[in-house]
């Protein structure tokens, strides 16, 4: 429905687009033009969530009983539809999240990759056979879907993160309730439409939009929800994990990061600079794998500071729809306020503001949530800007006397998602690999991202539960059942160990 040029989008429950029982909607805005309403979305409540769970429960026997290769055929159709709609969906991501259009295009490509990878697993849903210790006995394992799974996703990757949860969950035979971030629901609607048009049966994938509190709590508390896959803040993820464990649900949470690059004196400086600038300021620093810290070996420090400030000063700031823009607006007023607060905290704590640090509010920036790329030096390890996730274009720089001290600085935070080292010394590279406390490790490459056939996730406060992507994704979305078949004609005496 469209009123005054603004479309109203509905929830998707049981194969039907429906209004929330609340009867209320809320607007979302373009972060580059904050007075521009992009659409109205349903303000869902707990009753909507429970209706979606019920629809998923009703659809479960049919979907879980569909052969995995047949489920894969639907995912392959979804892949082709997404490929056809890639430009439109990338534009939607930029309009509602704000990131540069090239980043949005890359995100859609990532979603396509994970759907393709998950669909391929439809013919590889392997268990294994093993010799039994008993005569005339066959022993093997099979995989069984969890059942109804809640998918709860953040705003910063509104297509890729949902896709890397939804596609593996579907191929494993689960039915889903998808709760996207309230700030980026339009991308979620378009992703669900892709699966709908690919022929996914009614009730297999359900979408509810709106505030996370009531809806999220209802999904966590529902006895019909057997699994929860969450990406978001460490605070919320920890609470979901606790409540899920209390109810014996299977839970995975991908949470915060404070990712560090170690730059050793022997590194290829030009290669390192490209990765650091991209990691710190690409997507306006709003990635869980963004480079938040750089730890520079002392002999390279002055050269690094000269080059990082020079390169940062040349970045173009503006509307993400402009393909020449490097740094686009922050995603929302809340993100803008948070980043500006942290910049203020950094200066109050005594760090040196080496570059940037200002909101851009005049002229072409007047209607958006723009903040200059910002660099702090002389940062103490106990400062909040050294320890807490800022989730914006703010880089903190440290000096270290050598590889041991650099690794100590890298490990000095509660998070452990991603990290990187730049060096030509293979011995020091492996020293870093063996001792750095992160779930993803890069050598001579940025802290960003990963590939869909490898596990994604972190240590410490960055994640809990099984990893996402790679074969681990299918481990999370299934239960392994051990089968023993006694095919002998006579009774077999069995050892009674358990």
Mean pLDDT score: 95
Q: What distance separates the N and C termini?
A: 61 Å
What's the gyration radius in Å? 24 Å
Q: Total strand count, please? A: 26
Work out the helix count. 15
Unreliable sequence segments: none
CATH superfamily heading of the largest domain:
Aldehyde Dehydrogenase, Chain A, domain 1
- Sheet with the most strands, sense and barrel status: 7 strands, mixed
Helix/strand-derived class? alpha/beta
Helix content: 25-40%
Task: Please characterize this protein's 3D structure.
With 498 residues, the chain is of the alpha/beta class. It folds into 2 domains: 2-255 and 462-482, 3-Layer(aba) Sandwich (Aldehyde Dehydrogenase, Chain A, domain 1), CATH 3.40.605.10; 259-443, Aldehyde Dehydrogenase, Chain A, domain 2 (3-Layer(aba) Sandwich), CATH 3.40.309.10. The chain is built from 15 helices and 26 strands. The strands form 8 sheets. The protein has a 7-stranded mixed β-sheet, sandwiched between helices. Helix 5 links the parallel strand 9 (148-152) and strand 10 (175-179). The radius of gyration is 24 Å and the shape is globular. The mean pLDDT is 95.
